Amino acid sequence: MHAPNNPFRKQVTANLRIEAGINWLLRLSAYAIVVAASIIFLTIFWKGSKALVQPTFPFINIGFLTESPETLHVLEKAGSPTISMGDRALREYEKDHDVSGYHKTSYVYAAGGIFPNIVGTVLLVIGSMTIALVLGIFSAVYLSEYSRQGPFIHMVRLAILNLAGVPSIVFGLFGFGMFVLAFNWGVSLLAGWFTLAFMVLPVIITASEESLRAVPRGFREGSLALGATQWQTIRQNVLPYALPGILTSSILGIARVAGETAPIMFTAAFVMRDEMPWQVKHFTDFFFQGVMALPYHIYVVSSKIPQNEYTEKVQYGTAFVFLVVVIGIALASVMARIKMRNRYKW
Amino acid sequence: MSTSAKIKRLDQRPMKDAIMSKNKFRFLGLTLDDFIKYFFQGNALIAIVVLALITISLFSSGIWFIPQNYQNLVIYRQAGLEYVDYLRQEIDDHTALTRYLSNLRLQQMQLLLKEGKTPEEAQAALTPLDTFITAYSDAATPLNDMLSEQTDIAAAIKDKHNSQQEELHGKEMLLKAGKTEEAAALQVEPVDFKTAVHPLLDMRDTYIETNGIFAETLSNLVFHPPKMVSRSLQPKMDRFRDLSRTYLIELPKYEDQIMNWDQFKPIPKYKALTSFLFGRQWLTASFWQDWYGIIPLLVGSLTVSFVALVIAIPFGVGAAIYINQIASPTEQNLIKPYIEFISAIPSVVLGFFGIAVLGQSMRWLSQQEWLAWVPGFPINERLNIFTAGALLALMAVPTIFTLTEDAINNVPRAFKEASYALGATRLQTILKIMIPASLSGIISAVLLGLGRVVGETMVVLLCAGGRIEIPDFMQGLGAFFQPVHTMTGIIAQEMGEVVQGSIHFHALFMVGIILFLLSLVINYLAQQVVHKYKISIG
Q1: Window 131-190 of B, Cβ < 8 Å to A
Q2: The pTM is what?
Q3: Could you tell me the domains of chain B?
């Protein structure tokens, strides 16, 4: 039913076909990234949920979240069912069972849970974010409120930009050389806090400055016109409106701090530690103790023990918990930012 | 004093005074506000301070590597290890030729079996070749015996020197602790390198004799090489003959090196640094000689990054163009945050995924018949450059995507509208207007992506394979399926195990310095690109 004489009829030329083809190529590249990321998420969620979710009440494997890592022993004997249990459970079991004929294989850290690791990561995040926020916000206040164009400010901005590009392992090396050895803090929470804090500093400063700049000029000018000093203006008319924004955009910094392994490898992380962080003799010891951390635990269980059906549970389980935590934090940051945008409109 | 009285008093003062006396507090001529300002300014310094601290802490540790490495090289020469390594080089080159022959034999064998011969028949057809290979390889036996004898002697000298150094160190510690008598009782005999290497030098005459016989045997063999059973392999045999002849011609060179070796020839100071920067071996905790050459690690880092960028650039830039120019609003709202979200995946989780899933699937895929044409397939190691590169690509994609999208977004609407007004299609507008206009932004995005990839630790530590060797690029693209080790990986792996203050410890800091400088250079380039090549938009 087409009119052959219509001069405005769309003609399917070779050029149009090429264009459609290239459009499809571009579309494919976008979707390929999405698919690749989804495969990773789904694999880890699917296999990790096996370690964490159980069919019976309370549906979540509480032990995995509340116990310490243990060695897993697998006892095999031809003709009888395979026994696999953790270190403590096996000792109980040996009291009233005969296990002499079994062939025993052991996998370190493959039983028990990851409670100390979660605690360690939380402690690292809290401490380093506190340091980074204090330093970062003060720094941003100067950059946004006081600074005038000049060589000093140029240097500062250059330093921030370059600091953002320094590899995390170099921060680890720096923390090790500086805090662990030169300051003689040892492998400790304190060393890890400062290393991680310095690492996220550029993120925090940039985010804080953006939030400060988002506060309208009129707020400052109005306050100054009424005779307030600059500090009074900042404290009463700028910071209160910028602070929520600073905090929400800093959540992304938390994801970075929680997710990095390289900086804490030789500054704060222990492979295994029997005491919990609060079991210290004197309160100052709290700062000078190493902790177990989730990302380092993933590194240890994925590189130091073999991959098989017995170790899979703890490997995927830890990765799953860790991914959920980090992605939860990142999601929270996105949500908070959307909420913020709706709250202040000027 | 009541409030009204205060106001009254204010009113009675001159106008200027009333305004200026708002803040009476002054210290060193500065008001409270000034102090607050300087407090914030001091905090703004933090980025510079941290950068300076990193530089200081890296260099103050790394710098010790240079004198230690110099000492390392001096001992290498004086204890005669260098002398022995000349002979080792000669034998290694011969072994390489033998390996070439064995490879040839393997190919011939496979060819014969393919032609339908039974293994016994094939074996029989290969007998002349086998005799030849055995004779060729056995020619070096006397030299080999000599080498192992010399190795023992030189290693013993070095061990003696090392233990003597330790005793000296112990003596120093005693002196420091104030135990003078005990220190005096500890007699340390320094190793006399000159007399110690005499047994080695005495072997020279025997060596010349043995080498003469070796050369004669080889030349006899090489001038009558066996004919290959299959004619197609004959060129390779001819090539072997040529290689062998070159080797024979070069034999006097090894002799010269050994005869003219000077134990006390001074080593130039710059060697301590150049042997690190251009050294092709990273060999630690060996009984013989430790080498700290960064080249294998640097090449490892660069090849992995190269693979990552080759994958990430088309996908990242393509996706950015699609999302910014072509996609529907729904797609934009879903895909853009999702891709930005990928940057939140912790690298150690990606590394774990590489070990647990990607490596295995890669190996399975490489063993499929229909993929046999891909160079390097089937792969030997499941963890290799490609595995690490593919995962790193996923880490670089969000950076490249976000910054490219920003760059395209910053191109003024008028450019696009003018292009459409002239009758260009959407594709023409994208390719000829949008991309050239945002090219500086795209390049800087790629550079920042590179910075992220080069500095990434956990993925390469877990997935790059951990073999400290320069990949064999003679294999062409197949080289990208070989395992490597990287600069970041080596620091993470070895830092926890080395003795503090040892040369190895300081060498790792040197690697850190190189990494730090590399990241600064990449950052600098990214900024320069944006500044210099920004087309004037106005």
Answers
A1: none
A2: 0.87
A3: 3-44 (no CATH), 81-262 (no CATH), 295-532 (1.10.3720.10)
**If DSSP states are collapsed to H, E and C, what string results for A96-140?**
HCCCCCCEEEEEEEEEECCHHHHHHHHHHHHHHHHHHHHHHHHHH
Q: What are B420-460's pLDDT values in tens digits?
A: 999 998 888 998 999 998 998 999 999 999 999 999 999 99
**What's the distance, CA B460 to chain centroid?**
11
The interface predicted TM-score (ipTM) is: 0.89
Residues near B140 by Cβ (< 8 Å), separated by ≥ 6?
A: B91, B94, B95, B214
Residue keyed to tokens 């090396």: A173
Question: How far does chain B reach from its first CA to its final CA, in angstroms?
Answer: 64
Distance CA A127, CA A129 (A): 6
- Smallest CA–CA distance, residue A298 to chain B, in Å, is 7
CB-based contact, B45 to chain A, within 8 Å: yes
What phi, psi does B96 have (nearest 5°)?
-60, -40
Q: Do B515 and A161 touch (CB under 8 A)?
A: no
Element (H, E) at B501: none
Contact A231 B33 (CB under 8 A): yes
Ordered structural domains, chain A, with CATH: 62-112 (no CATH), 115-343 (1.10.3720.10)
B336-348 confidence digits (pLDDT tens): 889 988 888 999 9
Q: Is A183 on the interface with B (CB under 8 A)?
A: no
Q: Does B54 touch chain A (CB under 8 A)?
A: yes
Q: How far is A102 from chain B (nearest CA, A)?
A: 29
